[in-house]
Amino acid sequence: MKLKNKTIFKGVFFLAVLTWILFLFNANLPRDPKERWENLSLKGCTSILVGKKASTDGSVMTTHTADCGICDFTWHHVPAADHGPNDMRKIYHIHQIKTWPPDQGGKWTMALEEGYTGLDIPQLAHTYSYHHGLFGYMNENQVALGESTIGCRRELRNPTPAAKFDITMLTLMAMERSRTAREAIRIMGKLGEKYGYGFHDSGEMLAVADPEEAWIFEIMPVGPLWTPDSGKPGAVWCAQRIPDDHVSVCPNESRIGEIDLENEDMFLASPNVISLAVEKGFYDPGKGEPFNWKKAYSPTQGSALSSGGRRGRLWRFFDLAAPSKNFSPDTPNMELPFSVQPDKKISLKNVMDFTRDKYQGSLFDPSKGIKSGPFNNPNYFHSFRYQEERYSSPRCICVNNVEYTTITVCRSWLPDPIGGVVWLSFGAQDTSCYMPLYAGMKSLPKPFSSGDHWVFNRDSARWAFDYVDFHTQVVYSHAIKDVKKEQLIWEDGAIEKAPAIEKTAQELLKKNHSLAENFLTDYSISNALRVIKAWWDLGDKLLVKYNHLRIYDPDKRRSQRLSYTEEWKEALIKNGGLKPPGH
Fold first, then answer.
1. pLDDT tens string 258-292
2. Which segments of 135-221 are extended strands (E)?
3. Residue 160 belongs to domain spanning
4. Number of structural domains, the chain?
5. Looking at the structure, do residues 333 and 418 belong to the same domain, yes or no?
6. Are 93 and 166 a contacting pair, CB within 8 Å?
7. In a domain, 358, yes or no
8. Where does residue 326 rank: exposed (0-12), middle (13-18), buried (19+ CB within 10 A)?
9. Do residues 172 and 247 share a domain?
10. Rounded to the nearest 5 degrees, what angle is found at the Cα of 387, between the Cα atoms of 385 and 390?
11. What pTM did the predictor assign?
């Protein structure tokens, strides 16, 4: 009897604790679906994928705009390593958003000190080198990643400690253990199944690529009652390959629709991909309808038009890449295709432009009208509440709260150390500069690994680009022209130099692998340091040139007042009650 009562007590206690955890987890989540979307988009990221036959040079490309505004923006290199037969790999919970002050060691010291899950798994004999920021982005084998949070049904969330993996840790495991995109997907999927996925994260998408293929991989928790002892998978996941001649995008919403599990060349999935949906009541096979992944696990509503551009990135990218398809902005996002064949093949420069898109020339253009201020600033207007009503700004691909943006390039015709490149820009894409980081590098520029949002730091690369961005925002229509001139010098310059740099690296690689790696490291670091200095200098120039809302010409030692846009003048007259003198 005592044993039975003890068992009952443990069961009641467990349920009580679980209920309290779920309450805390959901307490700060807004109940209004529109407001939930607003909150998600604040931390949302856009990921673009380009198949090898859709690119101008045969490369596979992915992007990640790490949109946040308060997250860690530092970058680090993890070298390859050999391990003993009894070595174990510690697994950590790593929160995407949480940071610590630099004087406490910053995120990548404190997260490992405080985030240990208690789980150790067998280490491999050899792990690969890779570059990482908030996530792993590229390893020495040209396996590349990009990320976008997509959410999931509330019933699937698992914030309990039983879920040992979150998305950040999964990406690090993929980086250190995989040789191909497919292998990375299977590694992450199996780890989530065996040890549980969730804790800090809900539904997540990863763009997973190598020199041959690009995939959209989506993974979700299976609910808070899951335990390893259940014998069931602790995650549900699905992956769909981008056709080689297509492009696709993930703008914080699930992208995989109907799946064909018999076609393993295009689809991969966990064993519970359909059975869990049936068990949870998300899908009824008796209705005779085909199984649809996004409708089952992460359904969303609305279109670009119905949301006033808040959910317009999906439509916008397809309209930019394939305008001949003439997709209507009123088409529900759930009905837009998984991928499209672009009207023209996509270059690296095109992808850079995509990441800087702010709906220019479209019906959602935020740089037009009074909402853009006196200098056509597309970042001027933000969503706000007034008298209990919400007024929303369009959500662009390019936002000014981005930590950094990555463009990963994977090329099959070059050796891995040379063929894989991460083009990285810190801060807002429109005022920043992309810098190449080769897969074969042995280290990253020191200024990449320091700084945070709360302390100005001239030794931090990110602050150089924020310095320029700050001065650009004040007189945007004027200052952005100065920024674009510098981007042409440094971005186009790096793209033009790349063939010569890579030819030299190939010649060195034939003689000595280490010499080639040292050469790529030295070139990438020196180029990045020159760009950082150029941006500090540009910030100083902008401060002088546009001081006091005037234009100062140091050469002529003259100044003149800046002119407002005609739209702003008209708004001041009509809404400000202005009249000419004497009237």
1. 999 999 999 999 999 999 999 999 999 999 999 99
2. 136-139, 144-149, 204-209, 214-220
3. 45-349
4. 2
5. no
6. yes
7. no
8. exposed
9. yes
10. 30
11. 0.92
